[in-house]
């Protein structure tokens, strides 16, 4: 509220302390950090990411317990898809075999 009322600017370190930004990187390292994050996300499980996005959107105005009940009952379409997917099986197998999973998005 203070910043809205006073128009006060803050530097990157203060923004990070307040939780307004995820991380602070030197200007020269920004592109490398962005590529690293993009690579990490690109290698991740697409069906899990889809489920996370749906749950965040749909559960925003729900009570926590109501959202958890919908998740455990597979009442989100993307969660239902995830639970019945090849990727779900692959994740469990990869964990048991102590290897990186190979996600296919199906």
Structure report:
The chain is an all-alpha fold and 106 residues long. It has two domains: 2-42, no CATH class; 46-96. Helix content is 61%, strand content 0%. It has helices spanning 2-6, 12-17, 30-42, 46-59, 64-72, 77-83, 86-96. The chain is flat and about 50 Å long. It starts with a helix and ends in a 10-residue tail after the last helix. The mean pLDDT is 91.
Structure at a glance:
61% of the residues lie in helices and 0% in strands.
Number of domains: 2
Question: Low-confidence parts, pLDDT < 50 over ≥5 residues?
Answer: none
Query: Any idea what the shape is?
Result: flat
What oligomeric state do the depicted chains represent? single chain
Distinct helical segment count: 7
Largest sheet, strands/sense/barrel: none
Strand content: under 5%
**End-to-end Cα distance:** 45 Å
- Name the helicity range: 55-70%
| Mean pLDDT level | 91
Rg calculated over all Cα atoms? 19 Å
* Structure summary, number of beta strands: 0
Provide the succession of SSEs.
HHHHHHH
Structural class: mainly alpha
Strand and helix map with partners:
Layout: H1 2-6, H2 12-17, H3 30-42, H4 46-59, H5 64-72, H6 77-83, H7 86-96
